[in-house]
């Protein structure tokens, strides 16, 4: 079990960061507004890079390899923010070491890799969660409450888009197949997870799109189908910017999730026969604090996974992403040699 499990409710949960890249730079700042949690260590395959990150963010220890932070007895939870194909090996090593995990999205590079991590976590009774911060945003929590209360009737369809215009650079991680590049794993995971959260796992997946010359997907449009007629239409792109909005349609109304939907502050409720109702729920910190608090509370309580971002949902999302990638002629592999 994770060393943090069974701690007293007032005792601090100590975090380590694996992979001091762009997203980790943002996430680590939000520990300042999370009660009972503190980032204490960082690991990179470059000691200089880890040392620089630790110095700038006030962390106590810097490790020059991922294996070193797995062996750090002063760390209870690891936040994994390496490129997607490295998540699998780091996560398995952490689980074997008894450390709880928050793993950046996409959870792994392959569905098989995700299943292996999930199976290992469940067998070892170690907490693991995908870092899908969208589900913990206060505005999305309110959306979920409205749907549960029947505000828009039965949810029948979801629309969502997320895209950015990036100049093609084969040296950039976003365009490198061996590093899990492409639109689907970086941005598509948001639209797929949003739809899966509200509609469940689809019965059919149809995808169309294009690829960059490095072999990764440049853009994709997905149609998720359900046996009872429900659907989701989803778009993601690295070729062109998209509004980043979502819309949830029900039998008695709909909800607009204003841009950018993956970390919104405002939703607009449209009920049949009523004026639109704008609802604003700001984030705490930069918005990453909510998922950090979820993990911290779950670890302290001894839970094996989150009820908001359960591992079954992660597997369902990975299944959709892999089906879509396959239809576009894209295949990824896990990097098993990072430790």
UniProtKB/TrEMBL annotation:
- Check the record and name the Gene3D superfamilies matching this protein: Dihydrodipicolinate Reductase, domain 2, NAD(P)-binding Rossmann-like Domain
Query: Family, per the entry?
Result: Belongs to the Gfo/Idh/MocA family.
One GO molecular-function entry: oxidoreductase activity
Q: Which residues form the Gfo/Idh/MocA-like oxidoreductase N-terminal domain?
A: 13-130
Oxidoreductase: is it a keyword of this entry?
Answer: yes
Could you tell me what this protein is called?
Putative dehydrogenase
Q: State if Oxidoreductase is listed as a keyword.
A: yes
InterPro entries, sorted: Gfo/Idh/MocA-like_OxRdtase_N (IPR000683), Gfo/Idh/MocA_domain (IPR050984), GFO_IDH_MocA-like_dom (IPR055170), NAD(P)-bd_dom_sf (IPR036291)
Entry-linked PANTHER family = OXIDOREDUCTASES, TRANS-1,2-DIHYDROBENZENE-1,2-DIOL DEHYDROGENASE
Q: Give the source's domain of life in one word.
A: Bacteria
Keywords tagged on the record: Oxidoreductase
Q: Where is the GFO/IDH/MocA-like oxidoreductase domain?
A: 141-255
């Amino acid at each position: 079990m994770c060393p943090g499990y069974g701690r007293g409710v007032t005792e601090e949960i100590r975090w380590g960061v694996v992979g001091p890249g762009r997203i980790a730079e943002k996430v680590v700042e939000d520990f300042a507004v999370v009660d009972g949690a503190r980032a204490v260590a960082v690991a990179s395959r470059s000691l200089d890079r880890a040392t620089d990150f630790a110095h700038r963010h006030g962390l106590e220890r810097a490790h020059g390899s991922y294996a070193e932070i797995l062996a750090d007895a002063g760390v209870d939870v690891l936040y994994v923010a390496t490129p997607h194909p490295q998540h699998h090996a780091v996560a398995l090593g952490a689980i074997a070491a008894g450390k709880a995990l928050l793993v950046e999205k996409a959870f792994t590079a392959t569905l098989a890799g995700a299943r292996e991590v999930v199976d290992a976590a469940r067998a070892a009774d170690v907490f693991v969660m995908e870092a899908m911060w969208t589900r913990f945003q206060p505005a999305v929590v309110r959306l979920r409450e409205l749907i549960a209360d029947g505000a828009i009737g039965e949810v029948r369809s979801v629309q969502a888009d997320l895209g950015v215009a990036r100049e093609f650079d084969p040296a950039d991680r976003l365009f490198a197949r061996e590093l899990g590049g492409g639109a689907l794993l970086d941005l598509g995971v948001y639209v797929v997870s949003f739809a899966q959260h509200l509609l469940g796992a689809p019965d059919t997946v149809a995808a169309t799109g294009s690829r960059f010359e490095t072999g990764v997907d440049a853009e994709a449009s997905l149609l998720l189908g359900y046996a009872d007629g429900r659907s989701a239409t989803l778009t993601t792109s690295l070729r062109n910017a998209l509004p980043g909005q979502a819309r949830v349609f029900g039998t008695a109304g709909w909800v607009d999730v204003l841009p950018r939907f993956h970390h919104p502050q405002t939703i607009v409720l449209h009920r049949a026969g009523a004026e639109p109702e704008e609802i604003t729920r700001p984030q705490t910190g930069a918005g990453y604090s909510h998922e950090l608090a979820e993990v911290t509370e779950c670890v302290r309580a001894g839970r094996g996974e989150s009820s908001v971002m359960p591992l079954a949902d992660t597997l369902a999302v990975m299944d959709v992403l892999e089906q879509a990638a396959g239809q576009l002629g894209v295949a990824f592999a896990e990097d098993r040699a990072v430790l």
